[in-house]
Fold:
Amino acid sequence: MNGNKVYFPPNDDEFEISLFGPGYGESVVIHIGGNNWVLVDSAIDPTTRKPAALTYLQKLGIDPSNAVKLVVATHWHDDHIRGLGEVLSVCKSAQFCCSGALRASEFLTLVGLYGTRLMIESSGIKEFHTILRIMESRRKKIGRPLSGIKLAIADRTLWRQSVSVSGQTLIAEIHSLSPSDASILKAQKDIGSLLPVEKETKRRVSPGNPNHVAVVLWVSIGDISVLLGSDLQETKQVDTGWSVIVNSPNRPPGRASAYKIPHHGSGNAHNNQVWTDMLQVNPYSLLTPFVTGKSVLPKKEDVKRICRMTKNAFATASIKKRKSPKRSKTVEKMIRETVRKINEVFTSEGQIRLRRRIYPKDNFEVDLIGGAVPLENIHLG
Structure:
C-alpha cells in the first residue's frame, strides 16, 4: 500500500487494531478511540531492534508516555514478552496488566532467583524481572502498593473509559476472559516445582507451558467488539482453556467482528464454540506465524481449517522454504551424524491493520503492510 498512508494516525473517532510479527515475537496495538491506546505483548522490529509497537507509534507521531493507557503481558513466553520492559518504561502513565498466575509468590520467587542469571531457558523471566523493577520504582514514587498493576483473571474488567466520539459519549472497555481459577492453581503448582531445593545445586529449569494461563482479552466500544486469543490452548477440561470461557455466563455479551487467532493458528488452540458463539459470521481473523527449528505454525491443515471458518483471514507474514545452501562434505557429514537434516524456513515481518469509524457504524478497512498476506497465501513461495 501507499507508504505515506501507512503512517497517518487514526482520528479520535476511529478504532484501530494492528498486529505485528513475526520479527521476533507478536505484538498488538489498539486505538480504542479518543487517543487512548492499548499495547498487548511485544515484538522486536528486526530493523530497528526496538519494540515494534513503539516504532509504530513514533512514526504516527503519537507520544506513548501519555497516550498509552494499558500495557498487557498475556504470558511469559519469549516470543510475546521480549522488549516489554522497554515498552513499559516509555509508557510512563500506563497501567500494567499480567496474568493473575504471575503474581503468585512462587513466580515472584522464581523471578527473584533467576531474573538476572542465565540459569533458566526462558528470557521471559529476565524480562519480567525488568518489568517488576520498573513498577516497584513507580510504586515508591506514588507510595501505594501494587500501584499501576492489574491482575488478569477470568471475567474481570481491566479498563473502562468514557470516550467522546462524533458528539456521542461511548464506553470503552477491556475485559480479561482468562485465566480461570483452576488454571491459576495448576500454574502455581507447576511454577513451584521449578524452585531450587535448599542445599541443592541450582539447575537450569524449563518454564513449562505458560500458554495455559495466557490472558485472553475482550475489547469493546460502541458496536465494535474484538477478541484477542493470545496463546491460550484448549485443554478439553471444562474449568480451563477455551471451554471455561465459552461456557462462562459472566463473559461480555455480543459477538466479536475481529479475532486475533490464538497460538499462531495451531489446532491445539481451536474450539468450535468460539467461532459459533463468540464471533460474527466471517470475522476479520489475524495471526502471526511461528517458526523455530522444525516447528512451523500454522500448518497447512490449520490454514485450511481457519479459511473454512472465515473468508477474512490474514497473516502478518508468509512462510517460505529456502533452498539449502551449499556446504562442504565435512559439514554435511556432521549434520547427518547429529541432526540428520536441516529444514531452513524464514518469514518476513509485517503488519495487519484494521481501522473503521466508531460512530456512526462503518466497515473495517484492511491494510496489509510489509510482508502481511491473506492467510490462504501464507505457504506460497
User: Anything to note?
Assistant: Confidence is low (pLDDT under 50) at residues 203-207, 340-345.
